[in-house]
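ok so i was messing around last nite and threw this chain in just to see what happens. nothing serious, just curious
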Amino acid sequence: MTDLNSKKKNRNSLSIFSKPVFLILVCLALFSTCKGPGGVRVIKLGHGLGVTHPVHEAMVFMAEKVAEKSNGQMQIRIYPNQQLGTERELVELLQIGSLGMTKVSSATMESFAPRMQVLSMPYLFEDDAHRDKVLKGEIGKQLLLDAEDFWLRGLCYYDAGKRSFYTKNKPIENPSDLKGLKIRVMESNTAINMVKSFGGSPTPVSYGELYTALQQGIVDGAENNPPSLYTSKHYEVCKFYSINEHTAVPDVLIVSTKVWELLDENEKIWLQEAADESAIYQYKLWAESVEESYRELKKAGVTILYPEVAGFREATESMYEEFKLTQPNLFEIVDQIRKIE
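result:
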């Protein structure tokens, strides 16, 4: 575990901010965390999901728990639907302390905490039990804290299910069906390389802009979990959903270290406990949401296919071979994960 215990000390990796981020900064009139009348601590949490998404519901649950534990002396204000920016922009706001908390995919964290990218590797986990052992164990805990060198502290993981391909004009029954198709991916080198390994053309697009991108033909399809396909209404455009479950990339609830360091010991305890409890609640909500999503997608006329996974798994082996050669320290973590039973 030496690789996990070592810390990167280069704090010069802060991303260059785009103009939209600066506009958001101007619009944010208040600090990300402050104490108002009566000494009430208020933390802002922004994210890009809709209010019916189980992750948003878990965050509401967390906010209620924080208020309850603190006797009203600590509050979390939630801004959903990309009100404060895209996922990447929100992370950048956390880095400078202009926003308190956000939810990101661990794939997005690759740019800020490179060791997180191991969680985006295709077919990394054998099953749900294996994934849970990894995330709740020593490796998962250390990866959450690994981002502190980038001004980001992970509080907990949320279940983001398993990702599969959905497309507009034809079903994906084997990797060769992806050849020539423009597939939306997150801003993740691992996701980009995965789609390339299948023969597709990866196209990074913001989640909030994806519906329009699908409508206008900027992309031919995307990959995501059932609740996201359903709650985003992407199924109105994409009528084929191929369940190959190539990745099980978790979401991460993160707090700015600049904000975390302002909290007193009681406030840190309240926030961490509430986050942990919200993760348990979210896992339950997620399982229910997956079942509901499949029912509603079928009602909406989406064709759901279950292709043979072996071909997809075989196509991604080249990623592991390259990973071993080019990033041996990260491959060591992959090897540790694979050995967990």
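not much to say yet. The longest helix spans residues 265-299.
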